[in-house]
Amino acid sequence: GSDDKTVRLWEVNTGRCLRVLEGQSDSVYSVSWSPDGQRALSGSDDKTVRLWEVYTGRCLRVLEGHTGSVLSVSWSPDGQRALSGSDDKTVRLWEVNTGRCLCVLEGPSLVWSVSWSPDGQRALSGSDDKTVRLWEVNTGRCLCALNGHFSNVLSVSWSPDGQRALSGSGDNTVRLWEVNTGRCLRVLEGHTGSVLSVSWSPDGQYALSGAKDNTVRLWEVNTGRCLRVLEGHSANVCSVSWSPNGQRALSGAVNGVMRVWETGVDGRDETIPALESAAATAAVAAEQIQYTNAKVLLVGDTGVGKSGLAERLVHKRFVSTKSSHARKANVLESNVLQAPGGVTLHQETMLWDLAGQPAYRLVHQLSMEDAALACVLFDCRNETNPFEGAAYWSQVLDQARTNTKMKKILVASRIDVGGLPSGKERIEAFVRENGFAGFIATSAVTGEGCDELLETIRHGVPWDDLPMVTTTRTLAAMREYVARLKGEKNGNDASTGGQAAYTGLLTIAAIHEGFAAYFGEKIPLEEFILHMERLEATDAVDLLAFHTTGAAPRPETMVLLDPTRVDAYASALLVAAKDEPDGPGHLLETRIHDGKFKIVQEERIADQESEHHVLWFVMENLLHRDLALRERIKDEDYIVFPSQCTAELRFPGATAFGVAFGFAGAVRSIYATLIAQLAHYENFKKREFFQNAAAYSAEAGGRCLVRLRDHGRGQGEMEVSFDRETPAPIRQGFIEFVGKHLEARSTPGSVTRRHAYHCANMDCRNPFEDRVVKARLDARKRNLVCPICEKKTRLVDLLAPPTAAASSVTERMDSDAKTDRQRMTAGLVIKAKEAEEKFDVFLCHNSRDKAAVERIAKRLLKVGIRPWLDKWNLSPGDTVSDALEQAIKTIPCAALFFGPADIGKWHIMEIRAYVEKWSSGNARMIPVVLRGVKDAPELPLFVRQTLWVDLREWEKDENDGFYRLVCGILGRAPGDSPMKKFGVRHVAEWQGKKYCDCGQGDTDSGFLTLMMGERKKSMFKLRC
């Protein structure tokens, strides 16, 4: 399938193109053969699936129904049905012979890949929400979501026996899953770019993966070893496949080149000549290391003694500790074992101490994912209700998303102060009722019970159920080096300053130099940055680049070695917002940046400049995670935390009708993100936040109201109600948005809906039973008489299927949430760059073109890119030449604008200065053509060899010139998107990872390929 809107049939033996199937009106993203080899399916950007008779080239049927690009298609094993995945967030099941859509499987995000199980009963989908979803095809029911990837899942594939599955992701890894249990068996590391395609060998023993690093890797699945790295492609490998006998591998790249490889597997078949021999030309995979990490949690209410117990377990000593905001991670044990097959396996147990204060739970609940074992502490000094807090934490742990069922240990702390508060029978009953694996009484002061607890942890970790990670020697060494910098491991001091642990910020370049000295080998800086991104994905470090605006890490990017500091600051800000007088739940942005809020001194970064840098990053994270909003109040910028509002105002939620949603999970986190997302909807003219409630006033009249009822133990109810004058589409769209939010974030299967009606008489307010309201609505009765006051209350069926108008409102709410979130983060990022006097791009232009260039500069600000423009950044009295020289020296990228005016004096000097920087590899140049230039512009000789961006029609919705300029400034190849229109809204969506991750443009001489006359194609094309 190709970007030229065709499907091509090839004779592999000769490389001859046998037929071109034409008919799709836009790019073809996916093709699939029928099991009998007579027909094929294609999915396209034109939102259709086409059925082809392959050997005649005839289009037999067009399957319509998707409202977005069709990114993946797959035949059922019996050849009667087909699946298609789309960026409209659905998977559709088709009856191929009739073209009828049998079922629509709805998910929370864009679907990149679909795959049938061998028995045809189930299907897998890979999505933008980082999950693999397992579906029961006939019912359309989602059986489970497989969590573990740190980025979007771009490819999925079932094993031939239907027991396992592979997934490839934007986090540069391949994961092996046991489908029936949802367990991740292995994580395969080695690629340095997004994994775009995975494929099983016919015997299920081997796998192929193709990636953005231009390589194909051959894996031995059962051991996780990478056997070969197949090199030869000069562009991203977007598709891989096996020959039916398993002796040949095929790979296709985005530049249109297909390669056929001899895999080197026994059983050579000479009928298909290999174009490349993996055995002869592929690189033998570098030395590999396998490891397994186990996350063990210490949780409990504040003051139960978690930190003191952690010190005893890790360092075998007692240290008096204070309650803190932070999550602290320490290496509890590290062992080296011999796994079956002679493979050396490193096992490491990490102990995570999570803060227990109610205000901090909002942040720390996110750290519970993928834990193998948890110790739930209760304080023996509480004699009245010692298990109250433990019951809450037990429920929260039960709701956490983990690779395997988490084992829980009930731990009594501080038994040296008064002994146990309960009898043996009561404790055993609590253990049994809450699913604990056992009970241990401890004292961090005396050490009593601590050895027993350590031994229980040691034998309680289900190592066989945890994923084994195969990684390269280089990446393993980097993990080791970073752990030593952080003071987590003993041995030769890795820090340059001779400290046991480095607590400040370091640049990537500094860590690169230090690692070269430590490791004894210097790897290319570009490759090192890719490995650092992988370490960030596994929560080992934080790279302080503004990710939400698309910024890529650079050598000068600062690195926070201890990511728990971000949580500590975020939690402290939430507490500070809640403690504000009169309960508005907001903080002045300048106050946050200056660090003027309470935080435990030991958790504060000592260096003030480093702290300021981290706080910008913390604020960006809070906005991006929908835990905060950014608003201008009385001419000052505030960070608003809606969930932290404690205003003593009367919530106006006493309306007569609504819907109540029951749900389970991280209740506070789900509520906090919901009310922040709703606040972004542009048709709400007013938003009010209260304690556990919010009200939104619609432009067309009426209010939409939300109230949280936290029942504890991970159970909650969200009541949604409306004023009578609220328009029906707004009501239904609001309800649908809330429902989808809860379905996506709550425990699967826990969301319920019921009518929530009260008597309309304000003096009565009698609640009506759901069954009574439902019976009246089913009987088409539109009112209900109150049995107490005998007043009539009008009924509206709020649980009826949404109308097209209501669905449009829901979609707009979702879209506005993304766009406004991006606007807020972009504004914050620009302010951070102003504070740190940093620019992203120098705008080099003739002064006669200034008005056109200034319009582009203003648009760049809206997406978080700060341009240097002489009109904005030269102060009265500045020496122009000195200011230009300083700007050119410090800004790594220049956009060279060419308009209808001739090149001016300063213009030509600026261009020459950047050409000099570019020639030494220290700058990136992007020639840009403005409106008024003739069709074939004659660029100056010294920039003619670079590729240019056409902004002659950039303000038109259908033009993607501005998008490509943004990509160039950020140093990212533009690729192709399923969505061809790129206004500011779509640039924002791209920066939120929606853009098509299946291909990048080529690079040349260290600068970005953007455009040459016509749009450069980058989808898979096979050359005739």
Give a structural overview.
The chain is an alpha+beta fold and 1024 residues long. The protein has 6 domains: 70-285, YVTN repeat-like/Quinoprotein amine dehydrogenase (Methylamine Dehydrogenase, Chain H), CATH 2.130.10; 295-465, Rossmann fold (3-Layer(aba) Sandwich); 472-560; 564-642, Arc Repressor Mutant, subunit A, CATH 1.10.10; 649-808, Alpha-D-phosphohexomutase, C-terminal domain (TATA-Binding Protein), CATH 3.30.310; 839-1008, Toll/interleukin-1 receptor homology (TIR) domain (Rossmann fold). It is 25% helix and 30% strand. The protein is built from 22 helices and 57 strands. Strands 15, 16, 17, 18, 28, 29, 30, 31, 32, 33 and 34 form an 11-stranded mixed sheet that branches. Helix 12 packs antiparallel against helix 16 (804-835). It is globular, with a radius of gyration of 30 Å. The chain starts with 5 loop residues before the first strand and ends in a 16-residue tail after the last strand. Mean pLDDT is 82; it is low at 267-282, 491-500 and 976-1024.
- Over the alpha carbons, how many angstroms does the gyration radius reach? 30 Å
Q: Do you know the CATH architecture of the largest domain?
A: 7 Propeller
Quaternary organisation:
single chain
| Number of H/I helices | 22
How many domains? The number is 6
| SS strand fraction | 25-35%
**Cα distance, first to last residue?**
13 Å
Task: Summarize model confidence as the mean pLDDT.
Answer: 82
Number of DSSP-assigned strands:
57
